[in-house]
Design goal:
The protein is α+β, with helices and mostly antiparallel strands. It has a single domain, classed as Roll (Pnp Oxidase, Chain A). The protein contains 5 helices and 8 strands; from the N terminus they run αββββαββααβαβ. The longest helix is centred in the middle third of the chain and has 14 residues. The protein is globular.
């Protein structure tokens, strides 16, 4: 089976610092929160960190939702007033708490490499669950006429007649699994 996170999806995730995680409880009530993440292997990971959350750990709404309904969505996006520069990556998948100590250590290492704030946090123990998202579908989209933020340059419109037209957004790639 081919990896769902292809090179372009991994590069997009690597260029961004925050995602929005969508979960739903057993009754389907949605819940969306921003979070820090890291990609390791074919998975996306996050940890419930030391921020003052009450309740914390597995009692957080996102964690209760994952226990009831492990289907999740993660979105990372670029917004700009010039809508030709809009872009997003949507990852749908299955979330579960990591129980394997070696996998947990790898995930925390990846998170600490990405976010210096995690390097000084004590993230061991059950009050700091690490969650693995196994992607089942990835959908990328971007507007036309502009280099997206984080793609190696500033967001700048194309020059010439094409820049004067209002282009319709185009589909880049959709992978269904």
């Amino acid at each position: 089976m081919a990896a769902v996170l292809d090179r372009a999806a991994r590069a997009y995730l690597a260029r961004h610092r925050v995602a929005r995680l969508a979960t739903a409880d057993a009754g389907g009530a949605p819940h969306v929160v921003p979070l820090c993440y890291a990609v390791s292997g074919d998975h996306v990971y996050f940890v419930v960190d030391d921020k003052p959350k009450n309740p914390g750990g597995r009692a957080l709404k996102r964690m209760r939702n994952i226990a009831e309904n492990p289907a999740v969505a993660l979105v990372v996006d670029d917004y700009a007033e010039d809508w030709r520069a809009l872009a997003f990556l949507l990852v749908r998948g299955h979330a579960e708490i990591v129980d394997d100590p070696a996998e947990r250590a790898r995930a925390l290492r990846a998170l600490r490499l990405r976010y210096r704030q995690y390097r000084s946090m004590h993230l061991d123990g059950p009050e700091h669950p690490v969650v693995r998202i196994t992607p089942s579908r990835v959908h990328r989209w971007q507007g036309t006429g502009v280099t997206p933020r984080g793609a190696g340059g500033r967001s700048t419109p194309r020059v010439g007649a094409a820049a004067r037209r209002t282009p319709r957004p185009r589909q880049l790639r959709s992978r269904r699994r």
